[in-house]
Amino acid sequence: MNFGIDDLPVRDELRGKSPYGAPQLDVPVRLNTNENPYPLPEPLVERITERVREAARNLNRYPDRDAVELRTRLAEYLTRTAGHRVGLENVWAANGSNEVIQQLLQTFGGPGRTAIGFEPSYSMHGLIARGTGTGWISGPRHDDFSIDLAAAGKAIAEHRPDVVFVTTPNNPTGNAVPAETVLALYEAAQAAGPSMVVVDEAYIEFSHGDSLLPLLDGRPHLVVSRTMSKAFGAAGLRLGYLAAHPAVVDAVQLVRLPYHLSAVTQATALAALEHTDTLLKYVEQLKAERDRLVAELRALGYEVTESDANFVQFGRFADSHAVWRQILDRGVLVRDNGVPGWLRVTAGTPAENDAFLDAVRDIKKEQS
Ligand code: PMP
């Protein structure tokens, strides 16, 4: 018998949908998921092993449910790098920032409520909204992918969303959102709501500009979400976190599963945080490579969106999927995010970026 998903009583809003995920193809150069290309340094691998061994002895017990030591270290990292004091009471951590976003939507969204994002942006915001029964509103952007403030203000006033997502630097476009824009959106959201404004700073360490963490001062409806998946080069660890008013940290605990962060995860993240300075050195290299990709793609005649992230959006193509395939045929996997006319490439090692640039150069040559 052919029994499939459609034969199960799945929720109506999930019918006919596909799970999120970039293709994980086995090709020599993978520049499609905005990962950090550098493996963890050996001294850190050693430290993780030590910390995890220690944690393993106590795996008969549940982990620290409130992840106090980890949140304290994350708060120290934020305070040191963003120049704004953040304490344990301001920080919450979960399994990747996707889980942070899910917990926020479970807390502040849900059936009968809505969330808005300005698209193209990180598609999981809309997908997690759907998964939590939250209605999704797609807000507008200008042609240069900056947020259309007038239209955004109108949409917020009209729909009165419960959650407003702002991704800066934005994925997949790469551009950062100026602080004034976020402030204007916050004001609009408070006038219509008050609703929560979630600033997704997954890529902030790669930005030319500063984190918006200082905006938390006096704004209890603002949340900044972060991850160790990108700058820390630890996508496999699954550790995301947020900074916000302590009331927000109390609120998300109403929906978190008890002991959601395993003792192994907490031990590994703590070890990585001990090596913050070494890991952040790679960020400088990746920023330089990102800038090189922008310059070389422009020199080749491509249009490139200004990038503050560890990836670059380039175009324009009459058929971006066909070009994605041509690049893949040359052994390099980039991302077709479904933004018509554009593709996205993650900054890899210098050799990986050279392979990518050779591929697009070759394609250009073939066309001329
Ligand atoms: N936010 C943005 C903007 C992202 O691009 C990603 C990952 N691609 C995430 C959040 C989620 O990252 P993670 O769950 O690995 O922290």
From TrEMBL:
<keyword id="KW-0368">Histidine biosynthesis</keyword>
<dbReference type="Pfam" id="PF00155">
    <property type="entry name" value="Aminotran_1_2"/>
</dbReference>
<dbReference type="InterPro" id="IPR015421">
    <property type="entry name" value="PyrdxlP-dep_Trfase_major"/>
</dbReference>
<keyword id="KW-0028">Amino-acid biosynthesis</keyword>
<keyword id="KW-0808">Transferase</keyword>
<dbReference type="InterPro" id="IPR015424">
    <property type="entry name" value="PyrdxlP-dep_Trfase"/>
</dbReference>
<dbReference type="InterPro" id="IPR001917">
    <property type="entry name" value="Aminotrans_II_pyridoxalP_BS"/>
</dbReference>
<keyword id="KW-0032">Aminotransferase</keyword>
<dbReference type="InterPro" id="IPR004839">
    <property type="entry name" value="Aminotransferase_I/II_large"/>
</dbReference>
<comment type="subunit">
    <text>Homodimer.</text>
</comment>
<dbReference type="GO" id="GO:0004400">
    <property type="term" value="F:histidinol-phosphate transaminase activity"/>
</dbReference>
<comment type="pathway">
    <text>Amino-acid biosynthesis; L-histidine biosynthesis; L-histidine from 5-phospho-alpha-D-ribose 1-diphosphate: step 7/9.</text>
</comment>
<comment type="similarity">
    <text>Belongs to the class-II pyridoxal-phosphate-dependent aminotransferase family. Histidinol-phosphate aminotransferase subfamily.</text>
</comment>
<dbReference type="InterPro" id="IPR005861">
    <property type="entry name" value="HisP_aminotrans"/>
</dbReference>
<protein>
    <recommendedName>
        <fullName>Histidinol-phosphate aminotransferase</fullName>
        <ecNumber>2.6.1.9</ecNumber>
    </recommendedName>
</protein>
<dbReference type="InterPro" id="IPR015422">
    <property type="entry name" value="PyrdxlP-dep_Trfase_small"/>
</dbReference>
<feature type="region of interest" description="Disordered">
    <location>
        <begin position="1"/>
        <end position="39"/>
    </location>
</feature>
<keyword id="KW-0663">Pyridoxal phosphate</keyword>
<feature type="modified residue" description="N6-(pyridoxal phosphate)lysine">
    <location>
        <position position="230"/>
    </location>
</feature>
<feature type="domain" description="Aminotransferase class I/classII large">
    <location>
        <begin position="29"/>
        <end position="359"/>
    </location>
</feature>
